[in-house]
Amino acid sequence: MIAALGTLLFFAATPVFANRAAHRLGSLHANCYRLAVAVLLLGAWAHLAGRGWGGAALGWFLLGGVVGFGIGGVAMFQSLPRLGSNLSTLIVQCLSAMVAAAVEWAWLGTRLTPLQVAAAAATLAGVAVGLMPKSLPRVSPGEWAVGLVWAMISALGQGIGAVISRKAFAVVAAAQERMDPGTAAYQRAIGGLLVAALVLGVAERWWPERRRETGRAWPWVLANALTGPVLGVAFYQWALRTTPAGVVQPIVAAAPLLTIPLAAWLEGTRPRGLYYAGAVLAVIGVTGLLVGR
Question: Domain limits of the chain?
Fold first, then answer.
């Protein structure tokens, strides 16, 4: 569970850096560049000290990256401008945890204990309370519907992507191989980069983004890559190697509750009162997940 907590901390920091990179580069460019940096850094590790492109589960890890990193990430970026960050994150994080638990039970036969189910529910309830926006976004019904669909696609991608990683580690175990988290993250990042680059290429052809401060964006891109697809996902794969996705995802879902005070400290804002109630409830839930293993 140390790995899940590490994932929580890294994923809490990455949205702050991602927001600054996206502001300077555009969201599609920022997403693609961070994955490219991640592939380079993780690739250096994987080919020097890990398994590189080897392993019986290479195809599964690539597929997990396509579904989780690629489809899930691109869909999230499409939901954000329509529903706003709080509502988009609330829907994606809570729904992806439920998707992961349901798919893992149906596909891999993994069942959670009653305590784990109750603790996961408390964690997600805390996330919902803490991230609940003051008001719904003022957009047309059509934009609202499109944003909701994209958020649901992102949740499906992230939840299913987590279970695919669980399947990949099961294949590794069945083949009596060892797969380090860094190599798993590398193989997964390759799949995500393929989708991100394809989407960016299509978008550049038809809907080019306006880039404002390319040179000044790179420190934020690097920080986003390190806390997200490099260290964050390496810890994430480490957690999924030993722990059910239905337990890992609710813990990871609490990351935005740590992002809010970090962003408030950097930007000079103050969290709403409901945030604190949600954070307390989420801490109780995460504690239950840690104790209930």
Answer: 2-110+134-255
> What does pLDDT average to over the chain?
91
Range in 92-96, 132-136, 217-221, 225-229 with the lowest mean pLDDT: 132-136
Contacts of 227 (CB under 8 A, 6+ apart): 10, 11, 13, 14, 17
Decide if 240 contacts 18 (C-beta within 8 A): no
Rounded to whole angstroms, the Cα distance separating 74 from 32 reads 10
Token pair, residue 202, equals 């299509």
Asked whether 6 and 248 are in contact (CB, 8 A), the reply is no
Determine the angle formed by the axes of helices 73-83 and 27-48, rounding to 10 degrees: 150
Q: Mind listing the pLDDT tens digit for each residue in 152-172?
A: 999 999 999 999 999 999 999
Contact by Cβ (8 Å): 52, 183: yes
- What is the distance between the alpha carbons of residues 52 and 67, in angstroms, rounded to a whole number? 21
DSSP string of 267-288, one letter each residue: HT----HHHHHHHHHHHHHHHH
Find the angle CA(179)-CA(197)-CA(258) to the nearest 5 degrees: 65
List pLDDT tens digits, range 107-116: 999 999 999 9
pLDDT digits (tens, 9 = 90+) for 257-266: 988 887 777 7
